Each structure stands twice: as C-alpha cells, then as structure tokens.
Amino acid sequence: GRAPRHRGVCMGRVVQVLRNSVLIDLRAAAPDAAVETPLKAGDGVVFDAADWRSPDEPEEGGRIYHVRLRRNQQVELDFGNGAINFKRIRVGDLLWRSDDPEMAKMARPFTEAQAPVHTQKLQVDVEAYVGQPLRARWSLVHMPQFTVTINSPTPLEPANQRGLDQAFLRKQFGRLGGTAYELAEVTLKTDGRAFAPSSLLNELRRDAVDQLAAMQATPQHQTVHEPLATLRRAVAQTATPAQSPAPVASAPQLHLLVRTPQQLAAALALHEAGCTLGSITLDYLELYGLRPAVEQVQTAGIPARVASPRVLKPSEQRIVNFLLRLNCDILVRSSGLLQALNHSL
C-alpha cells in the first residue's frame, strides 16, 4: 500500500492549511464514513503525507479540539495549542481518523466485558472423605475433553457438627460471576463426616477456573496432511477400473428437497402416484413442524433427512439435541454444528 501503518478510516482531504486550523473536504472520505460517523471533538486523526514525504518519517496528527462546518461538505478543524505542526501539512494530504472515543466506549462492553456474553456449563464431581484430600473433577458439559481435577492440599478433617453436603458445594462452587462459566451440576461422594471450609472450596474453584481458561486458550494440536500424499494413498486404496466389478444398472431415483409443508405434501403425493423417491430432505426455515414432517416421510417408507441451520450459535445446544432426537440423517451445513455433533455422539 501507500503507507506501512494502519491508518484507520479515511475522513477527507486537506484543501487549505490555515494559520491555526485545517480545512477538510469530506467528499474524499471513505463511503458513508463522514455521514454515519462525522468528525467531532475528541477524535484522534492523522495526516497522510505519503505522497510527498517518506512514510517512515513521524506522522503529523492529534486530537480534534473543535469542528466548524463549512459549505460544500467542508469542515474546519481546530487543534490544541502546539498539538499540530501546520508546516508539515500540505493541500492534498488525506485525513484519517485513527481513534473514535465514542465508538471505543460503545465497543468496550464487548471487548472488555466484566462478564462474558456467553457462559459455558460446568459439571463438578466431588469426592470427600475424612483423612483424604478433597478431589473435585471439573468438566465442560458440552466439551468434556476440557476437564481438570483439583485436589485439596491437605486431607479433610472430621466435622464437629455438620459434614460437607451437596447444597454447600453448589453454593461455593456456583460463585462463577465474571467468568466464562456457570455451574450446571454438582455430584458428591462422601462418608458424611468430612468437613471443608468455604475458604478451601473458594480456592479450589478459582484454581479450576484458571486451569480451564488456560486450557481453552491453548491452541489445540492440528494435524496438517500433505494433500498430494493423501490423494495418492486414496488412489492406491481404490480398485483400478479393471478390478472393479461391472456397475449394476439401477432405476433412476429422485431426491427431493422441500422447504414448506405444502411442498412436502406434493412430494408425498408424487410418491403415492408411483414415483420412486430416493429421499426427501427437509429444509424448513423454522424448526417448528420438523418432527411431524420427518414422521410423515418415514411413515411413507422414504429415507428422511433434515437440513441443519447454516449458523449455530454457542448458546444453541438445544438445537443440536433437537436434531439428534429426530432419529434421521442430518445435512450438516456449519462447522459449529459438526463440532457440536462430534462432542454429543
């Protein structure tokens, strides 16, 4: 490109350099940039002088102090005293907005959220016996490959009054606010006499959360196969044409995809009229009505298939469970669903 650094959004071009301000023509801005997010006081901007000065030299820029509207889609920009060296700005230089405080404030809840938008369900299995360390196994419900086991540093002492119970564990382990997790289920195996203070349980919970987060943040090992070698192995394992048996002629079959109950009714009527249907794929816009539709197809003796949604959000595990309960083939159309199915099966 013209410059080695990321500039931001192009907001216009310099048409006049005044003594203490700069006149900008907004018509040179990126499409819709000046209309949807106009320049305002506080914005950080930089002047692009790459047309006449080496891009490796320091850039001229700063925060806008005041914006005055002019005619013909022009604005006059004022800057703080001494913030800009106007001698280093020329007519024709592009103006880029490199920082928008209002936009950054709007994005902060998503980029620096105190609590994540989506939480993952946890199951905790606890073993607590007098004279032995407390053992807690933490695992993600929908991704059980992420599992950590935390042991207390010392054996448990007998309780003076009430021993450790499931309700107390749920209360202490359920304090997961501000993390990426939420407690779904707690199981407890105990002799009924073991005692564990809340401070110990809180420490074990924090340790488990830290380990799970670190485990999920670590890139998983991916085996990359050399495509040509893989293709050669596949060809070698395939019978040659001379070794292959002669293909058996079969009657042509029609495979239908339907998107509405009306189309399904027409397809079933076609089947009843004697047309051989190889399968019917149900690609409904809504999940509502899929189950009876699948049952109609299967009752007619036709293989049924359901086309999955093209996008599966992390919070939509219920959709995966629903599709599995249909007891028919699934046309998988997203990598997210494929991963969820691999973990569910």
Could you give a short description of this structure?
This protein is 28% helix and 29% strand.
Compile the SSE list and pairings:
Layout: E1 9-17, E2 21-25, H1 33-36, E3 44-48, E4 60-70, E5 74-79, E6 94-99, H2 101-111, E7 120-128, E8 133-140, E9 147-155, E10 157-158, H3 166-173, E11 181-190, E12 194-195, H4 198-217, H5 227-237, E13 254-258, H6 261-272, E14 277-282, H7 290-299, E15 304-307, H8 317-325, E16 329-331, H9 335-344
Parallel strand pairs: 7-11, 13-14, 14-15, 15-16
Antiparallel strand pairs: 1-2, 1-6, 2-5, 3-4, 3-6, 4-5, 7-8, 8-9, 10-12
Care to describe what's here?
The protein folds into three domains: 9-110, Beta Barrel (Thrombin, subunit H); 120-216, no CATH class; 254-344, Transcription Regulator spoIIAA (2-Layer Sandwich), CATH 3.30.750. The chain has 345 residues and is an alpha+beta fold. Helix content is 28%, strand content 29%. The strands form four sheets. A six-stranded antiparallel β-barrel has the order 1-2-5-4-3-6. The protein has a four-stranded mixed β-sheet with strand order 9-8-7-11, with helices on one face.
- The total count of strands amounts to 16
Number of helices: 9
What would you report as the Rg, rounded to the nearest angstrom?
Answer: 32 Å
Largest sheet report: 6 strands, antiparallel, barrel
Please give the alpha-carbon distance between the first and last residues: 49 Å
Level-1 CATH class name of the largest domain: Mainly Beta
